[in-house]
Every structure is written in C-alpha cells, then in structure tokens.
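Retro notes (design track)

What went well: tokenization of the new backbones is finally stable.
What didn't: we kept losing track of which sequence belonged to which structure.
Fix going forward: every design gets posted as structure first, then sequence, in one message. First example under the new rule, 123 residues:
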C-alpha cells in the first residue's frame, strides 16, 4: 500500500481559501489516478474530486464545482486541492486517495488512503 501524506488543513472563515497537498511515493504517484474525499460529522465519505494519472481528466462533486480545483505535480509527486469560496458545509476531514487501476473516463477505484486533514469553515 502506498503512503499518502496530506497537509494544508485548518480553520478558515466562510468565503476564504485553503490549499490541501498530498505527497506520495514516485511509484504510486507516477501512474495512479488521485483523488480527494471528505467525511463530515454524521455523514458518509464522499468523493470531492479526482484526476487521472495524466491530469487530462478531472471530475468534481456538484457541491464543489466552480470552487475547488484538483491538480497534480509529477515533479513533486504531489496532488493539490485548491479550495476557494469555502462554505461551512465544506467542514470535514479531507482524505487523499490513489487509484492504481484507472485508465480513461470517470470510473475510479480508489484503494490507497491518507490519514486525513481537518478542514473547518466558520460562518
């Protein structure tokens, strides 16, 4: 199982921004699709965004479209989630994930997970 390490979480007021980072090994990052999930109190884990290994395909949950941007930097083995115009309902633990099976399209199967980073948005 690959090691994924998230960072960048914190407390921010509504309307503010945060950028989450997820560092992975070269073995994992070079050819795996990557994604971000979140789990809010009392809610099930949901997929926020995903990106193909090449970066050519990105998908977003409807709730974050236009506000969040996922990207990846192969030179740094890092995937990012830029979160703008944050809302209190974005409050959750955010998890980085890796998919070793993805080829094309939006059919992802995430298997590796980070430990999570807390994002709290106050009103």
């Amino acid at each position: 199982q690959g090691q994924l390490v998230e960072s960048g979480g914190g407390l921010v007021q509504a309307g503010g921004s945060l950028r989450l980072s997820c560092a992975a090994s070269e073995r994992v990052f070079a050819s795996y699709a990557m994604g971000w999930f979140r789990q809010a109190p009392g809610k099930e884990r949901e997929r926020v965004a995903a990106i193909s290994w090449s970066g050519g395909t990105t998908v977003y949950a409807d709730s974050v479209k236009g506000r969040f941007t996922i990207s990846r930097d192969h030179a740094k083995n890092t995937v990012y989630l830029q979160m703008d115009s944050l809302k209190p309902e974005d409050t959750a633990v955010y998890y980085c994930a890796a998919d070793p099976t993805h080829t094309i399209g939006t059919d992802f199967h995430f298997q590796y997970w980070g430990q999570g980073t807390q994002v709290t948005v106050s009103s």
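Added context from the reviewer: The first strand starts at residue 4 and ends at 7.
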